[in-house]
Amino acid sequence: MASDNNKLHIVLFPWLAFGHLIPNLELAKLMAEKGHLVSFVSTPRNIHRLPELPPHLTPLIKFVKLPLPKVLNLPHDAEATSDVPYNVVQFLKKAYDELQQPMTRFLESAKPDWIIYDFAPYWIGSIASKLGIKSAFFSIFPATSMGFIGSVSTLMGTDDDNSRKTLEDYLVPPPWVPFPTTVAFRYFEIMRISDSFSDDNDSGVSDVYRFAASFQNCDIILIRSCLEFEGEWIEVVKNLHRKPVLPVGQLPSTAYDDGAENETWRWMKEWLDKQNKGTVVYVAFGSEAKPRQEEVKEIALGLEKSELPFLWALRIQRGPTDPEVRRLPEGFEERTRGRGIVWTGWAPQLKILSHQSVGGFLSHSGLSSVVEAIQNEKPLVFLTFLADQGLISRVLEEKKMGYSIPRDERDGSFTSESVADALRLVLVEERGRIYRENMKEMKDIFVNRERQNRYVDGLLSYLRENRNASIN
After folding, report:
1. Are strands 358-363 and 61-65 parallel, antiparallel or unpaired?
2. How far is CA 462 from the centre of its chain?
3. Do 406 and 434 belong to one domain?
4. What residue spans of 9-65 are helical by DSSP H?
5. How far apart are CA 102 and CA 100, in angstroms?
6. Average model confidence (pLDDT) for the chain?
7. How many domains does the chain have?
8. What pLDDT, on a 0 to 100 scale, did the predictor assign at position 181?
9. Cys-Cys link to 88, which of 84, 102, 173, 453 (CB 3.0-4.6 A)?
10. Is the pLDDT of residue 147 over 90?
């Protein structure tokens, strides 16, 4: 526990996506464990949906509920990206941007030592500076992704030598990376997120600008990463931004278990208990990625052709207003009954991955899912969809920690045969043993409690020493 003289008050302000909210909550818990007061700011419904805190941390983590302003075309009760179709997320960002005034009022009254913010509220760094509050931009994206996107001048398009002028410029490793790498987007990946590069979207601000302003206006940069895994990429980020860059560790999930088992997990566990060790494919693509209908069909038929048992957490809609409901191929469930389960509700992913019958994870390569897979030594098969998932999968492929299903470079299409072949390679075949072995070797880097504590101690020490100092 920190002494009263050394106790900090830290505000966390994550973007409205559970892939962002949960890592921020893990960081909040680690800082509260050291005796510091944390104000976790989000919207009421999101806070209600967060995992329960361990009782000993509840006095130190204060949830601050800011109602999300209503904007045209944003459905009622939509407070997270998982609540809306992909094309509506920009309206969520527009509503989020309207939290500037209530957030300013909160900071004025709370007078925290630091605010740690996400990429979407690009405006918070300048607000904090005017109020005399130190700010840290916290990237829940790994150093690989932050190093790939470049400096503020590159993102703003003011660096003639390094600025990317076309989407094709994202298809090759950038010139400022001084070591060989395959990390770059593929054409179909960059096309799926092309709206992120344009200010002509429904939020009025591109994601590229949000990142640039977030980097520019903060005092320090925090990254969900560790030197042992991607130290060379952390150096790239330091060289790009010329300000303090602190890795905070991989923040593995530490869900509080009160001993109660919900009904969903109870019957899933009963089914998993009946399967042979290391044979089940777990399939899930996070809270945001929603495969297209043709992709759902090929995934389903690939699972069928693999002849492996499977548990598929399938999102058929992004929120209740999503008009495009995904369907399984006709007869699929009947043909695979007993061998596989398709579940369209919430799934207890961490518990599923920890079960000994699960032998591999067909994933979108989102960082939180990757960390949970490594936590449980489950080799990965990748199907990327959004954001930086392609970049993460490249670096994991370089390290032989996962295998990407072969796809058409232009449209991203793939076949059921390629799905089945990839699953059998990673879970069963001798030539895929390297993926299974490397996951076991990487576990200590990602989920070593002592190492994670050292990163948090280093962060807190820095925050204490610089809360009242000028940082340049």
Report:
1. unpaired
2. 25
3. yes
4. 18-33, 44-49
5. 6
6. 93
7. 2
8. 96
9. 84
10. yes
Nearest CA-CA partner of 208 in 190, 195, 225: 195
**Distance (Å, rounded) from C-alpha 390 to C-alpha 387?**
8
Beta-strand ranges (E) seen in 210-357 are 220-223, 245-247, 280-283, 310-313, 340-343
Please tell me whether residues 327 and 454 are part of one structural domain.
Answer: no
Do 238 and 153 fall into the same domain?
yes
SS3 38: strand
Q: Is the pLDDT of residue 1 over 60?
A: no
Element (H, E) at 306: helix 293-306
Q: Are residues 425 and 462 in the same domain?
A: no
Tokens at residue 174, please? 């950038």
Strands 61-65, 37-42: pairing is parallel
The pLDDT tens digits of the residues spanning 166-195 come to 888 999 999 999 999 999 999 999 998 887
Closest CA to 25 of 1, 77, 60: 60
What's the rounded Cα separation, in Å, for the pair 8 and 111? 11
62 and 129 share a domain?
yes
Same-domain pairing of 32 and 63: yes
- Provide the residue range defining the domain that includes 405: 263-446
**Residue 81 shares a structural domain with residue 228:** yes
Give the C-alpha separation, 260 to 171, whole Å.
Answer: 48
